[in-house]
Design goal:
Length: 195
């Protein structure tokens, strides 16, 4: 191998290492829990701002089929057509840590202009699964605002740690996947139902 080839290989490796390190270093997600006075339910809010890979991150989060690859608590996703125009139905199978265990949720998902993902459970073994994830982009910068009610039937105060862990790990994994994937290589077609 020539010296020039070795230098190119080292430069490529350094670029990849820098890209992945930058993606990992930016992953700060702020979370909080609030009580919704109208419904009496606890809502988890999360916000994250990433300075790179905004378009790729949006594509990762809109590719519902890949969700099981993003978090070990999601074991399977299955997409089907919805009777409501402009929506999809997504079946998500979970394997939460003990004592919750295996659960499933069929959600109706509406993607409003690809800047909002809104969902609500239409059936399942979760007590509640509904929320909204909104993207605000400025060039490659992206801010994610997440707001959701996720209830497994256990008291909210016991489940907060699990909810926070799940959401932060999921968003972090999506951002890392966006960094690994790079611009223009992930297709939004991955989120369409089987036909």
């Amino acid at each position: 191998m020539s010296t020039r080839s070795v230098i190119r290989l080292l430069c490529t490796a350094l670029t990849l290492l820098t890209t992945c390190s930058a993606a990992r270093a930016e992953q700060v997600i702020n979370t909080r829990f609030i009580n919704d006075a109208a419904s009496g339910r606890e809502v988890m809010k999360a916000q994250a701002t990433f300075s790179r890979y905004g378009d790729e991150l949006r594509k990762v989060l809109l590719s519902f089929r890949g969700y099981a690859d993003l978090h070990p608590w999601i074991t399977e996703t299955e997409i089907s057509n919805s009777p409501v125009e402009g929506t999809s139905q997504v079946l998500i199978r979970f394997k939460f840590p003990w004592p919750v265990g295996k659960r499933w949720s069929r959600i109706e998902v509406n993607t409003d202009g690809q800047d909002v993902i809104a969902w609500r459970q239409i059936e399942g073994t979760l007590n509640a699964n509904e929320g909204r994830l909104q993207f605000a982009t400025n060039g490659q910068n992206v801010r994610i605002d997440y707001s959701a009610v996720l209830s497994t039937g256990f008291p909210d105060r016991w489940a907060r740690g699990y909810k926070k862990q799940f959401v932060t790990e999921f968003i972090n994994a999506a951002h890392l996947r966006a960094a690994e994937t790079g611009p223009g290589t992930l297709r939004l077609a991955d989120s369409t139902p089987n036909e």
